[in-house]
Every structure is written in C-alpha cells, then in structure tokens.
Write a structure and sequence with these properties.
Membrane topology: Multi-pass membrane protein
Pfam families: Polysacc_synt_3 (PF13440)
Subcellular location: Cell membrane
Helix content: over 70%
Shape: globular
Keywords: Cell membrane, Membrane, Transmembrane, Transmembrane helix
Number of strands: 0
Strand content: under 5%
Largest sheet: none
Order of helices and strands: HHHHHHHHHHHHHHHHHHH
Organism: Corallococcus exercitus
Length: 517
C-alpha cells in the first residue's frame, strides 16, 4: 500500500513548484527588458567606434576601465552577500543598508580626490582627465545601483526593475546619440551614463521601500558583522574587476591607445554574448540560495541543469563570433577597425568559460566555499597582468597592427582557462553528470563539423553571409539531431512560465519555509 503524503510535504512541493514558476516568470520579465536594453546598447556599440575612430575610442575605453579599476574598493562584496542572505532573510536588508551607503559615500569622496591627483601626476590630456572623472562618478552610482537591484532580485520583485532598466538605457543611449549628432567633445561622453544611473537610483530606492520596506538606519554593530562576512566576496569582486580592467590600462601603456581601440571594438562585440549574464545574479542566485537552504542534493541538481542551459546558449553564439569575426567587425565598428577581427576570435571562447565559472562560483558560494572562489579569482587577477606584461611587447612587435590587442585577448583567454579548471576541479561531480558530459561531447563534435564546413566553403569562395548561414543551419541540425539540445525541455519551461500562480505569494511561502542561512 502506498504511504500517505503528509500535508507539510505537499505544501513544500507546492511552494517549490510555485517558486520555480516565479523564477521563470522573473527570468522572462527581466529577459524582455534585457532584449530592449541590448538593442539600444547594440546601436551605441556601432555608433561610438564610427564617431570617435580607433584612437579616440581607445581613450574612451581606457578612461572607463581606469575609473572602474580605481573604484573597485567601493564594491564591498555587498552584492553577493545580499543575494546569498536576503532571499531567506528579507528583513535583514535594513540592518546594514544605511551604514554601508554612508561608508560608500565617504570612500567615494576620498577616491575622487586621489583620482584627480593621479591623473594630474601622470600627465594625461585635460579632456581625458575630465572624461575619467565623469566615469568615476558614474561608477560610484553603478555600485550602489547593483546593491539596490540585488535587494529587489532577492525578493523576487523584478517587474518595476525591468521597466527601470529600459528607461535608464534610453536615457544613456539617447544622450550619447544626441552628443554624437551635435559633435560634443570626448570629455563629456560619460555624462549620459551619470544621468542614467542617477535616474535608476531614484527608481530603485522607491521600489526597495515599497517591496522590502527598506529603512535607512545606522547600525554599526550589525554592519561590522556583515562586512566580516562580505570579506571573501569583496576580495573576489576586486580580483574580477581588476582582471577585466587592468588589461586595457596595461595595453594603453605598453602598446598604444589605438590598440586599446581595436581591443575595445573586439571586446564590445564579444561582450554581446553576455546577454543573459544578469539573469544569473537576478534570478538564479536567489533561487540557488533557497535550494541550498533545503538540501545540497537539490543545489547540485539545479547547478548541473543550469550548466547545460549555459552551454546550449553560449556555444552557438561563440561559434558565430569566431567564424564571422571579420563580418561582425565591419558591421559593428566600421572602417579603421579591421585589425580587431583577430582579437575577437581569441576573445569569443572566453565567454563560454565565463558563464561556466559564474554558475560554478554560485555553487561554491552557496556551499560555504566562498574563500575558494576568492582564491581562484585572486590567482586570475595576478596571472592576467603577468601574461599581459609578457605577451603585449612580444606580439605587438611580431604581428604589427592588433598585435597588442591580440596579446591582451590571449592573456584573458589563458587566465579564464586556469580559473575555469580550478572552479570545476573543486566542484567535482557536482558540476557535470553523465547526461551533461554527453551533451558537451556531442556539442564539441558538431562544432568541429561546423569549423570544417566553414573552411571548405571559404576555400570555395562562398560569400560571408551565405557561408555563416549554412554553418548555422548545420549547427542547429547537428545539436537537435544528436540530442545535445532538447526542445521539449525548453517548451516545458515556457509552459511553466505561462501558468498563473501568484508570484509574490509563492515567494513568501518559499522564503518562510526555508531555514535561516
């Protein structure tokens, strides 16, 4: 005779099902806003290289990278802490929010003075100094907005935030387009970013007060405990930020700002593969926090399936970037950026590994292995500059135009390989099971066939667009025919999202049922 199912077990199963439906709906809501914001960003990515040219575009990218590196300290590791703790303790947000805001304000004032002194001492042109300072103001707002967004994602309230993302992106993109139309100088091109982030902060504050009853209070004792818990997250964020920004600074000093322009052009195109990356922090991390609170087995299962989804999305985009690099550079950047094609090919595989490390780092964080994430990220931050110092002078002299940019791309590629191996090695069998390993093997075979087909078609003189179309069709047929990608499972997710089920209520049930982390 079948054993009866207890009411509490049924309630837990119902809460989890509703939580998944809510997470899927949140993903689709945020994904919809991302599509709009990326469409705007795509237009700006095509506009700025054409408006500025390689050298000025290099100064533009270098200034943004330099300001972001300078303001790494203001991150505090708070965003990751929020996504780990607030999903299961919503009221905890008010314990540290006010004090950390004041702390960040004080740090910003000190850093702005230090930044001005550094720029004056190094003798950068006045317009570049001005541009860096505007980017620094924008960066200080970006850091605060990231924490505000993390609070809303942790609560599962994303509809207002999705609208906010679209509004602020219109402010940014429209501002830059107007400046380009009126021929505004380089030093003012960061102002639209400052305005858009200021608008986002106002909207996010109102949403946080509405949905989390967020209060601005000073609690030094509670904040000290939070800062102690944030230490590994802060070191990880600092390492990752330096790893992604110091390369442009070194390239500008060891090669030329024109090389930075080519690298920036390649990076802006390859960065389009980060289309769904915000979903990881916005939806997946809070969901994995709740799964970890229930059981390690549930967390591992969710991680494996997430890695499958990541590969299903990123690998075809990576293949399109590699095989169509010359085409994308001409389309997105225009004349003068042809040397960016080689760095783009080197950069493209990095983003597959970056997505894998995103999921892996969430698993390690939820498994209370934060310091391992910090160790791997710190190692990457140390290794990447060393690779740049060794490779930039060598390839810059050997290859000629784009040699420095290619060296920087190769340095990032090698660094990402090391970090990915460290993460997956620490996860062990929690990363891939037999099903996902078969998916990886089948996808690799299909990619090999596509590369061979592209070489044959290229040798036969087939034009770029038809060649890319035939290769894409081959990839789709290959992954579907081998079962590497399963459409039925994707349709199941869409059906789940269409079901009605009270997102807010289900989130509350899931949170109240979960133990305190």
């Amino acid at each position: 005779m079948n054993s009866p199912i207890s009411p509490s077990a049924e309630a837990d199963d119902g809460a989890r099902a509703n939580e998944v439906r809510g997470a899927v709906r949140s993903t689709l809501q945020l994904g919809g806003s991302l599509m709009v914001t990326y469409a705007i960003a795509l237009g700006i990515r095509a506009l700025m290289p054409r408006y500025l040219g390689p050298e000025a575009f290099g100064y533009f990218n270098w200034s943004e990278a330099f300001a972001a590196t300078f303001f790494v300290a203001t991150n505090l590791g708070l965003e990751t802490y929020i996504r780990k703790e607030v999903p299961v303790r919503p009221d905890h947000a008010s314990d540290f929010f006010g004090t950390t805001m004041l702390l960040r304000l004080g740090m910003t004032l000190i850093l702005m003075v230090a930044l001005a002194l550094v720029l004056h001492t190094t003798g950068e042109p006045p317009e570049v100094q001005h541009l860096v300072q505007w980017f620094a103001v924008a960066q200080s707002l970006i850091v605060v907005n990231a924490s505000m967004a993390a609070l809303l994602h942790s609560k599962g309230k994303v509809a207002g935030l999705s609208v906010s993302n679209v509004i602020t992106k219109i402010v940014w993109g429209g501002g830059l387009a107007l400046m380009a139309a009126f021929g505004v100088g380089l030093q003012w091109l960061a102002v639209p970013m400052v305005l858009s982030e200021a608008v986002k902060l106002v909207i996010s504050w109102k949403l946080a007060k509405e949905h989390l009853d967020l209060k601005f209070r000073i609690d030094i004792a509670a904040t000290k405990k939070v800062m102690k818990a944030c230490l590994p997250f802060f070191l990880t964020a600092a390492a990752l930020a330096c790893n992604g920004r110091t390369d442009m600074s070194l390239l500008g000093k060891l090669a030329s700002k024109e090389e930075v322009g080519w690298y920036g052009g390649a990076f802006s195109i390859a960065g389009l593969t980060f289309l769904i990356s915000p979903i990881f922090g916005w939806v997946l991390m809070p969901m994995m926090s709740r799964a970890a609170a229930r059981s390690p087995q549930e967390l591992s299962h969710l991680t494996r399936r997430s890695l499958e989804g990541v590969l299903a999305f990123t690998v075809p985009v990576m293949m399109a970037m590699v095989l169509g690099a010359d085409l994308w550079v001409r389309l997105m950047c225009g004349p003068g950026f042809e040397p960016a094609a080689l760095p783009l090919r080197v950069l493209s595989p990095i983003f597959v590994m970056a997505y894998v490390t995103m999921v892996s780092s969430i698993w390690l964080t939820m498994s209370n292995k934060e310091w391992w994430v910090t160790l791997a990220a710190t190692m990457g931050a140390v290794v990447n500059p060393l690779f740049n110092l060794a490779l930039i002078p060598w390839l810059y002299g050997r290859i000629g135009p784009s040699g420095g940019a290619t060296a920087t791309a190769l340095s990032m590629f090698l660094t990402e390989v090391i970090v990915t191996v460290l993460f997956l090695g620490r996860m062990g069998r929690n990363s891939f099971d037999r099903r996902s390993l078969l998916m990886v093997a089948k996808t690799a075979v299909v990619c090999g066939v596509c590369v061979a087909l592209d070489r044959v078609l290229s040798g036969a003189g087939v034009a770029p667009w038809p060649r890319l179309g035939l290769t894409a069709a081959t990839y789709v047929v290959g992954v579907l025919g081998t079962g590497a990608v399963r459409p039925a499972e994707l349709l199941q997710v869409v059906r789940m999202a269409r079901q009605r089920g009270g997102n807010g209520a289900s989130s509350e049930v899931a949170v109240s049922a979960a133990p305190t982390a």
